[in-house]
Amino acid sequence: MRDPSKMTESRPARGPRATDLTRAAGGAPTLHELSSATDAPDTPSPPTDNPAAGMPPAHWAAEDGSAQLWLGDQAEIFKRLADESVDCIWTDPPYFLSNDGSTCRSGRRDSVNKGAWDRSRGQVADDAFTEAWLTECRRVLKPHGSIWVSGTLHGYLLVGGWLQRLGFRLLNDIIWEKPNPPPNLGCRCFTHATEIVFWAVKPDARGQTRHVFHYAAMRTANGGRQMKNVWRLLTAGAGERRHGRHPTQKPLALVERALLASTDPGALVLDPFVGSGTTGVAAIATGRRFIGIEQDPGYAAIAGLRLAEAVGARDAGTPEPPAVAAAPTAVRATRPRKRKTP
Fold first, then answer.
1. pLDDT tens digit sequence for 121-157
2. Which end of the chain is more exposed for a tag (fewer CB within 10 A), N or C?
3. Does 41 map to a domain?
4. Is the pLDDT at 334 greater than 70, yes or no?
5. Residue 126 resides in a domain
6. DSSP strands (E only) in the chain
7. Spatial distance between the Cα atoms of 197 and 291, rounded to a whole number of angstroms
8. Residue 146 CB partners (closer than 8 Å, separation 6+)
9. pLDDT for res 181
10. Does residue 279 sit in helix, strand or coil?
11. How many domains does the chain have?
């Protein structure tokens, strides 16, 4: 397996700019393009050791070392990752949503419980858990690196509070609007049709943030208009669940858009709560590298199948094109002109 540290590292950008990502918006770059991609020479990045040095054998790994998945508790595996070694983190942590309630799945009432990992252990314990994993995220993230964290009202207030207390700079709260949310069976509140995705950046030692943001590429993908923080995207379809189902699986388009906006080709992306592997699939499809952690053997198996499939498609030169385009917007209504009377 090739050492991930030998591959090209991305460097922080000075303000909004568009690079090879404009091409990536229409299709992931080839491995040859990744190996020769460079950024501006005035923003050097210090050499980085293998972030996974000293780790036990991965649960799954690409032959070239560009994507790796570890099975185990993120709190333990985090300890073995090197400081300031990853360019970006995209993750979907436990929501603490499993409360013995019910939801609608495939037109039928079903339990909302997802597993012991999603059950609240009380406000104090949930707060300590959130502080711990976000503290580790800050440690392994490079200065100017981006972190994306998704969630619902059950947990995003905790996440947002700790992002601020740990010194991250919050850039956006992305509102993911689901055109096809499950119906509200209780009829005692509004239908839950959105989720929040925080986008934040780690400042450097001087408190500055020169984060990567491919503004021009996002504007182009949005039909020449500035992309807003409300993203209207369908939930993960049957094709993305063909290897197995995860109860909180995110659509590939959501993660791909975030990575294309905030990282360069060849960047190293970490997900400490892999689930079914969507972050890894998005990273591979867009020409990024990936490290993931998952504690559930069943979900790790699903993620491994999806990651292997994505690597195979990439190496064959037929990766799925990144789903970065914005959802269709309504055509503006115009009033009919009044005819002048003679």
1. 788 999 999 999 999 999 999 999 999 999 988 778 8
2. C
3. no
4. no
5. yes
6. 60-61, 67-71, 86-91, 102-105, 108-111, 141-151, 169-177, 194-201, 230-232, 268-271, 289-294
7. 20
8. 87, 88, 89, 199, 200, 201, 211, 212, 262, 263
9. 87
10. helix
11. 1
